């Protein structure tokens, strides 16, 4: 893939391009059944968009809107112009569908390739994709980007860790796409096989698909010897390639030539204050087949202030700290699971796996944290384990303002998954 000049657009050029593409997006969206109705109900028309500030006149779009529009209520071109669709099912079981034209697929691939080039990947890299293919966008999305960049791409898919390792070794893989919980699982697997993770020769890991802490990133980099770059995407916005870290590893550049970004207070729906964490809202700017306007992602982040030393002027968002619907409320205190992970992954005695259990004693909700302890620290000295348990409980109390019950368990005793990890189990009302 040749150099993409949009990567280093100046701020004024970004704004002019966004306004032009926002107008086009609204014109396209108005052809769909959903937005024809929503625009009419909100008393707004595409020609009312005179400046980027007019974005706030447009209605929000929610996942429920996508479900209710199933199967094709957001489409703006005839079915014979669509070349692909991805489907995801929500907690209700009602699918959400995202359609792509050939132009949409090309745009998506170019954004992913841009991300990969930004972190230092070149056509000389051998890229292995350890995430699911099929309807999950992280498979084909990353694969097409790697091929466009010129890398040899290995479409391994998820699971089958023994084969993952063999392919990495045999074909001298240098770059991985991997979810953080599976990267921790892979580290444990290699340890059990007596293999040094650094001997694999990996130099770059593209990490995303679930929230993870800076402490987890540092741990992975220390174990494998690669550089781990945070990524962000969601199927409603194509998939991977919405935002990505550069080599500075200090916030993810959100590609503003393809997406308009807002951060709002999830309760008042008003713009968040500068630097305030809020809910990310995104508008597609380049999608033909199924444009989406002001989509409430439910993902929590903030816009980082100041320029990036890398020279790119596309705004940076902070790592995703969780989803607004991931919030745990215990004894009136708001807690996000990533806060607990930050503490656990900062402690050398704690292994790669943990579990948060929510229980109810009488009428009072309680939180219990089960953490695996590394083998070299899991000794029969009960006093040492008790001291470690107290230290973890104290550190967690300082972070989440609630004292959880802490259980220290043996290595490899908690449930493991080769897919996304289940970190929170709600047992309230089930005892």
TrEMBL record:
The keyword Ligase applies. Pathway: Aromatic compound metabolism; phenylacetate degradation. Transmembrane segments: none annotated. Its EC number is 6.2.1.30. Pfam families: AMP-binding, AMP-binding_C_2. GO terms for molecular function: nucleotide binding; phenylacetate-CoA ligase activity. It catalyses: 2-phenylacetate + ATP + CoA = phenylacetyl-CoA + AMP + diphosphate. Residues 332-428 form the AMP-dependent ligase C-terminal domain. Residues 71-282 form the AMP-dependent synthetase/ligase domain. Monomer. This is Phenylacetate-coenzyme A ligase. The lineage of its organism: Bacteria, Pseudomonadati, Thermodesulfobacteriota, Desulfovibrionia, Desulfovibrionales. The gene is paaK_2.
